[in-house]
Each structure stands twice: as C-alpha cells, then as structure tokens.
Amino acid sequence: VQLQASGGGLxxxxxxxxxxxxxxxxxxxxxxxxxxxxxxxxxxxxxxRITNGGSTNYADSVKGRFAISRDNAKNTVYLQxxxxxxxxxxxxxCRAETLKYTAEEVPIVGxxxxxxxxxxxSS
Length: 123
Known about the structure:
58% strand; single chain
C-alpha cells in the first residue's frame, strides 16, 4: 500500500484547508485510514480516523471543526479542516491500517504511512 498526502499550506486563523490522502497498491486490504499530526516538540497524535464501515472518531481538540471522509471511487480519504487555530499547526500524515489473511486464514495486520504535509496556521 502506498499513500500520497497533499493539501497542506499556510492559512490564517479561522481559515480552512482540505487534505487528501490517495491510496494505491493493495487497496482491498485497507481496513481503516487515519490522519495524524505532529507539531515540533510534541508527540504524534491521532486527529481523525475512518473505517471501511464508515465509522469515524476524532481527537477532542478537533471535534466540530474537522471532518474525515472518503471517496472510494478515487481511493482517497479527505480531512476537511475548518476554523483552524494556531495550535493546529503541524505536519499531517495519513496512515492506512491493513488486514490480510494467509492461505491458512491467519490474520496479518499492517500499517502504512504516507509522507507528511505541512499545515501552518499563522496571521
């Protein structure tokens, strides 16, 4: 599985950005996709995640402002970010969780990362 993230940039507080994460390769093995972020000096944190079944979860800090969605036809997961704040500044990366089964039906889980895209909120 390969992931290509894009959409970052410089935006003023209160502005919006939409990040995209395009998947290729063994797409059928993808179970869920999450967006993570890491600011300088901070640990990487989960921002939002969406499963194949459409279930979503969000970090408390972004609830009501961010929305994760997917377009299966485009093999793309989006992160719509509204009402951006200074503290949203970080490198955002997408991560795919995969699940495959061997011929003996033994489950194999995996995780794949896309490259990061910088989001800077500044006036």
